[in-house]
Design goal:
By secondary structure, the chain is an alpha/beta fold. It is built from 4 helices and 10 strands, in the order E-H-E-E-E-E-H-E-H-E-H-E-E-E. The protein has one domain: Cytidine Deaminase, domain 2, CATH 3.40.140. The chain has an 8-stranded mixed sheet. Helix 3 links the parallel strand 6 and strand 7. The chain starts with a strand and ends with a strand.
Amino acid sequence: MGALVVVSAPVVAKTLLELRGAGTENCERVVLWLGARSGNYVNVSEAFVPLQEAEEDYFWIPQRGMSELLSHLHQNRLMTAAQVHSHPGHAFHSEADDRWAIVRHEGALSLVVPFFGLSTTEETFTGDAAVFQLSKGNRWLEVPPESVHRRYRIE
């Protein structure tokens, strides 16, 4: 299943600020939740915005952005706990999302926030964001809403 991802309200607030900022320009955005593992938990300490290219219906992190991310992870002894990105419409995991996903380990989380996050608040984030988990067979499967609390929580 994977470790429980624990994220603070300020990290969620920064994530939404980034998603909305791009959304006002009709662009998707990806934000990576970085943290450290402690037993069965990953405690997220940072909302990291990598160098990326994005338009209304996709995002992509070029090689330079990946290199900067890997350097930041190494220097700060962190891991990518989850990726969070926006969609212009409803939240789902598209073929492009599958192909360009940053987190690729079994149990990895990908959260998709609908409507560029423009109407999502810290209070509605958990209900608004669709959550997907990478399976053993390398497929992104949606986590049922009633099970989301077993995969991540906001504190």
